[in-house]
Amino acid sequence: MQSIYLWPDNPALSLFVVFLVSMLFLWAARDPMLKLLRGLGKNLETGFQSIAHWCASTAEQLKKHSREALLAAGELELHGKLERELGRVDMSFSQKVGQYSGMHRKLDDLLEHLSADYQSCGDSPPEVPGWSGAVETVAAIPTSMDSNVNKVLEGIQASMRDSEKKALKIYRDDTAKRHKILNSMRPDWKTVRTLMSRMQQSVARTLETTTKIDRYIDEYAAVVKERESELRVASYSAFKPFFISVLVLVVAMGGAYINFQLIALPMSELVPAGSRIGGFPVSMVSALVIVLMEAAVGIFLMDMLGITDLFPKLGSVSHSRRRIILGISLAGLFFLASVESSLAILREQIVEADATLKLALAGPDGEVIGRPTHSSIPVIGQAVLGFVLPWILAMVAIPLEMFLDSGRHVVAQLGILTLNILGYTMVILAHAAGYLTTLLPSIYDVYVAIPLRIERMLRRSDNSDYETEERRLNDAEVAQ
Amino acid sequence: MKRAWQALLVLALIAIALGCSSDRRYDQAIGILIDTSGTYADQKAETVRVIKREVLPNMVPGDTLIVIRIDSESYDKDNVEALLTLDNRPSYANAQKLALARQLDKFASEKGGSSHTDIPGAIMLASEYLGEIGSGSRVLLIFSDMEEDLPKGTSRDFAEDELEGTHVVAMNVKRLKHDSADPIGFRARLASWEKRVMKAGALDWRTFMDAAKLPDYLSEIR
Hints:
- The complex is a heterodimer.
- By secondary structure, chain A is mostly helical.
- Chain A is built from 13 helices and 2 strands, in the order αααααββαααααααα.
- Among the domains of chain A are: 90-225; 241-395, no CATH class.
- Chain A has a two-stranded antiparallel sheet.
- Chain A is elongated, with a radius of gyration of 52 Å.
- The two termini of chain A are 37 Å apart.
- By secondary structure, chain B is α/β, with parallel strands linked by helices.
- Chain B is globular, with a radius of gyration of 21 Å.
């Protein structure tokens, strides 16, 4: 500040002189300066407006792209669900249809058997002999005094009773036989009932599946026909899988870190411990590679199981080849898990050897430090962890796919939001620039008010048309 | 077109990954100079103890250790007590460390002291070895009272690049009788050593009284 003082001992006078000189200079340069200020304000306003327009159009474009991508993703998901459901129905139907013929044959056999049994257990009372009516008539003749007649009658009566007894016995025997047959029919009825209930369940399940398919078809049709209304639901649901996948991925990364720590030290026994790649020991890099390989094998495994679809080309591979790749992936993962488990055991041995070495190097004072504890629990724990963690890590493919799918929609939404905020800010700045276009010339005139007033007074005295001139100047200023 | 961009991206990533790898070496060469002159001979056992507790356990596979005795004529190959480069396998390296510890114990148990103290001779010998190893980082640990006492007719001048790229640490500098009476003189002696080693191209000069600080320092300069 002091550098601008003409007389450092007298700052007030210096500042006054600077003020006067600047005022005179600005008065002299008033016309070009006003043009400059107005031009600057207008240019700024136009520039900000252009940026705001660009932001709005880009945001709109991004929104359109995002909407298309979202709808495509929704369609694809529904398509996949439909395919899966139809596949399940197909499999279930083929299975059930295969079983149905057998079940039906069994049911037919049973019904035939039951019908025959039913026929055979029909109630048929024993036939009364044809001559029984005659006998009854003879038996009904009143008793006479003739002993011969009496004998004959008594004989007829006795034979009558005998035949009645015989008929009753035959009837009872038949009834007992029928009861026996009916009793043997009970399990058959039970079997029929079971078969019927199974058929009912199958039908119910099929109905349930078809209802599901109906719903998916409805949704699919809604997405295809009423894209706009469904979009809101779809865009809302993009955030949920995104945050869940991020959460699961963070947890998985924690697991991967533990996994890495478990094998980093023992890897130094397998690879040159002194060498480095990019500043990191080779042992660490190889441990990292193993962990990443586990994740990669997991991705293949999940793709082959049909849970994820990270490699679309693998989806078109034939069923037999799929099984081969699945087998290789499983074998690879098992191999890596076994390697990691053995490395975890080796790690414990190295740690123990290190502790023993330090103790030996410390000399007699080392006794104070204490000897390492000998327990098999850490070894078992590390071996189990080493074996289990790769399998858990293999599942990272699921949240990874979710993250990739939902991430682009979320990023697009964030991009749209940022562009909108930027656009609004630019609009505000354009307004401010427009306001400054009118404000700055006025401030300028205030600063040079004294010489300006003097100039106008002098002009008034010199020129009778001063007012006309001033009006003209003012009009020109307004027009500008 | 999209595939071409993807291929380009992958190539760029590979190029970045390759760019990250450098030829820089991360192994460390540690030269230890142990004063065996009369005034410092009583510190031999303590020196060996410090090496065993603070230096050896923190050495990693690939590191090199050279132990040189400071006596009347230190610029002699016979003064090298031990020279060891740790194997790449940690288990072998541990065995090597144990063997070296036994060797150092034997050295500590040897009686007698030299009549003169040829510190610069030992530094020159060590710098030759360290230069030959060409490790990523080089450090000289001098266990001495830093009182130079050359025999008559011996001349020791450092070359300008004698200690280039080497960190020099004066460890456990013993105060002599006259140092207690004149601490300024003691400090001036250390300052003159600092000046001398820095002039010979050393990266830095440090003095440690507390040996426990050594592991952190060694890992810091690695």
